[in-house]
Every structure is written in structure tokens, then in C-alpha cells.
Amino acid sequence: MGEKVLEGRMTGQIHFNSHVWVVTDVACRLVNALTAGHDGTRPVEPPPIGHRADAVRAVLERDDYQPALSEDQANALAALAERVREVFRASSSGDVASAACRVNDLLEEFGAAPRLDPARGGGWTLHFHGRDASIVVGWGAGIAAGLGMAIGSDLAGRLGVCQADPCDRVYIDTSYNLGKRFCSRRCQSRVKAAAHRAKSKG
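The structure corresponding to this sequence follows.
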């Protein structure tokens, strides 16, 4: 794609290219907002059918982007989120081949194709567009391309699933040393506290 990833050595973090970051971050937040499982120790269910548009809109909206979204489109993006969760799960477990196959299926399904678009502030930036301009296909193509670039580059392994059982929320590891294991500081603190209690008892 010709987009570079910048390494933040001063902060100890990896900075994704802005476009790759946007689409992978949206992928991550769609999974966490629309798939069942656990957030920390709290069981979570996706919004019921008929009440998903607001949840999806909250993930997608930015200052310069307020999409109109139907419930049918929200349901389709919820179905996409389930498939994206499997990409995170496979990548996190080290099964990169399976993650790659799933992403290839998404790339083909949504017809992701590169296109140079005018960049804010001048110049041009390479984005991926879908086979049509609909919101589901557009985001499906962008998310598939972003995940593909992550898996097919030195960002492979940065798609994670929280290891603080029973939590299964997903995250993107931007740490310099690939050291992130948890979706949040809350889960990290819970695991550390449990380890400290176990050590004290021992």
C-alpha cells in the first residue's frame, strides 16, 4: 500500500499509519461493541436487533463523519464484527495462516481495491474502497484491507484478545516490545492483584 509505520522509540510505542490505524481501530471497537462475551468479569451481549444502529454509529462517528445508518446496515456490520473477532482470535493464538485466510475471504467479498484520494492538508493518500459506495461494503473493504496490512507486515501479532480470563475483548498492541496482554488497565490490575494474592497465600 505504500504506507509506512512509524516507530515511536521515545514513547515505547508503535504508531500505525493514520489510515491503517483508523480502520483497524474501528474493527477493534466494532468487535467489542457488537459481539457477545465478557468485558472484564462482566458478561456482555450485543445490542438486540432493532437497537444496533446507535451502537454502530457511536463507533463510526468522528467530528468530520456522521454516517446515516439503518438497522439493516447495523445488523450487517454486526455480522462483520463476528467475523473480524475470529481474525483477532486466530492472530492472537499464533494461527496467522487462519487469520490470513479469513482476511482474504473478506477482501474478496467486499472487493477491496486501492485508490488515491485527496488528503486533508494537501497531497494524496492511498485508501481502499469496496465494490460499491454503500456503508457496509465501504467499511468492510477498509477493515479487511487494514487487517490484511497488519497481518501481512511487521504488525503481525499485534491483534490481541485479552488474557484476563474470562475477558475476551480485543485490542491492538501498540507497545514497542509486543508486550500488551490485556484490553485495559482494569484487567491488567485484576490479574496482578490475583497473582499477588496467590503469591501471598503461597
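Residues 71-92 form the longest helix (22 residues).
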